[in-house]
Amino acid sequence: MKQALVGARIFTGDIFLDDHALVIQGEKIVELVPCAQLDNSITQVPLQGGVIAPGFIDLQVNGGGGAFFTNSTTPQAIQTMLDGHRPTGTTSLLPTLISDTRAVHQAGVKAVADAVAAGMKGVLGVHVEGPFFDMARRGAHNERYIRTMEQADIDWLVDSVKSQHDFKVMLTLAPEHAAPGQIKQLTSAGVVVCAGHTDAHYEQVVAALNEGLSGFTHLYNAMRPTTGREPGVVGAALEDANSWCGIIIDTYHVHAASARIAYAAKPKGKMYLVTDAMSTVGSPEKSFQIYGETIFEKDGCLVNAEGRLAGSAIGMIDAVRLNTTWVGVELGESLRMASLYPAQFMQVDNYLGRIAPNYRADLVHFTDDYRVTLTCVAGDLREHNLPG
Question: Which residue intervals define the domain Amidohydrolase-related in the entry (predicted)?
Answer without folding.
Answer: 52-380
